[in-house]
Amino acid sequence: MTKHPRIVRLAGAVAALVVLGSPAVARADAVTDWNGYATTAIVTTARQAPQVSPLSYAMVQGAVYDAVNAIDRSHRPYLVLPAANPWDSKDAAAATAAFLVLVALFPDQQPALQQLYDASLAAVPDGPAKAGGIAAGEAAAAAMLAARANDGRGGPFDVVIGSLPGEWRPTPPAFVVDPTAWLANVLPFLVPSVDMLRSDGPNPLTSAAYADDFNEVKEVGSLTSTTRTPDQTDAALFWQTNGPGLWNGVMNTLAVDRGLSSAESARLFATANMAMADGVIGCWNDKYHWRFWRPVTAIHEAAGDGNPATEPDPGWLPLFATPPFPDHPSAHACLSSALVHTLQDFFGTDKIAFSAYSSNSRTTRSFDRLSDAIKEVNHARVWAGIHFRTADMQGAVLGKKVAQYMRAHYFQPIG
Question: Is residue 21 a part of any domain in this protein?
C-alpha cells in the first residue's frame, strides 16, 4: 500500500546553535569595525542558525555599502544612492547604516549596540561631514529595511514528510522537522527568481552514481569509520560551524591585511554576504523541490531502494547528527561556493592564502587558494556522514550561479 506524505506547517522558529568564536582581528575603520560587531550580534549573541544568518549579514552589509558608496560614488548602488558630498564621513555613514539595521533586526540588543555606535560617532569630528555621513547612513538603512519588509522571513511553509524510498523524512536521534523551512520562500537579494538556480537533482536510486555516493558516505562518514583519517575528522568538525560567521572573519582579516579602503571593504562585505544569502535561499528552495533523503535514512532503508549495489545497515550512524532538512543540495556548499566565487571576482585571483579558526574543532586550518576551501567543504560534509557527494557538488554549482549573476548585474564601476 502506498503511504501518503505527511505535511507539517511551520511558523518560522529559528534553531539556535552554538557557533564559532574567531580570534580578534585588527580593526582599520568603521566598515571593518561594524562587520565585526555584526558578527557578534548575529552569530554570538542572537545565535542565528548558519542558514539564517546570511540574510541578516546581507541586510547590514548591503546598507553599509549603499551608505559608503553614496560618498565614494565609484560603483553602482545596490538600492539607493543618497545625496552626499565626497568629503562626508564614511565612518559615520557605515556606523549609522549598520547600527540602524542591526537594531531593527535585534531590538533587544539595542543598549549594547548603542554604546558601540556612540563610540564610533565620538571618533568622528563634529561638523557638516559627520552630519552628512549620518544622513547617508540613515537613508541607506531605511531603504534596506523597506526593501526587506514582508520578504518571507519567518513565514509559514508546508513541509512534506515522505515515506517512500528517496523521500526525505525526519532523522534520528531527535526526528526534528526543519524550523527554518520558510527560507525556501524568501525573496532573493540578487537573482530575479530562485528557479534559475535549480540544480540537476539527486542521482536516481537505481543508478551506479547513487551507489557510489551511498557507499562512500557509508564508509567514510560513519561514526565508527576506520578509513576516515584524523585530519578528515578535524576538517569535518571544523566546517560544522556557522559558515557565514567564519567567512566574515576571513574577509575582515583580508580587508585589513590588504589595506582595502573603507569603500572597497564595504563592497567586499556586501557582495560576499548577499551572494551567500541568495545561495542559502536558492539552496532551501531546491531542497524542498527535490526532498531527497539523508544518508542515515538511505543506509537504514537501503533494502527498498531497488539498487543491488547498496546494502542496508539499520545500526549505522553518521559522525555528526544529521540536520533536520533534506539532503540535496548541501547548504554549506551553496553558500561557501557563492562566497568563494565572489572573492575570486573581487580580488581577480584564486591564489589568496588564508587561515581560519573554528571553535568547534578548536583548530586553525590554512589554505593556499580560495578554491581549496570549497573543495574541503565538499569533502567535509561527506566525511561528517550528513551529505551525499552529489549534494555537495551540485550545491557548489548553485552557489557559483549566484556569483556569476551578481557579477553581470550588480556593483559595477561607474564611468
Answer: no
- Alpha carbons 81 and 136: distance in angstroms, whole number: 9
Q: Is 408 helix (H, G, I), strand (E, B) or coil?
A: helix
Q: 399 lies in a domain? A: yes
Listed residue (218, 208, 189) closest to 402, CA to CA: 189
Domain range holding 385? 167-409
Burial class (CB in 10 A: 0-12, 13-18, 19+), 136: buried
- Write out pLDDT tens, residues 153-207: 999 999 999 999 999 999 999 999 999 999 999 999 999 999 999 999 999 999 9
- Assigned domain for 158 exists: no
Distance, first Cα to last Cα, the chain = 66
Nearest to 286 by CA among 155, 166, 169, 197: 197
Contact 340, 374 (CB under 8 A): yes
Residues 140 and 199 in one domain: no
**Residues 287 and 343 occupy one common structural domain:** yes
Burial class (CB in 10 A: 0-12, 13-18, 19+), 108: exposed
**Domain stop point among 115, 147, 179:** 147
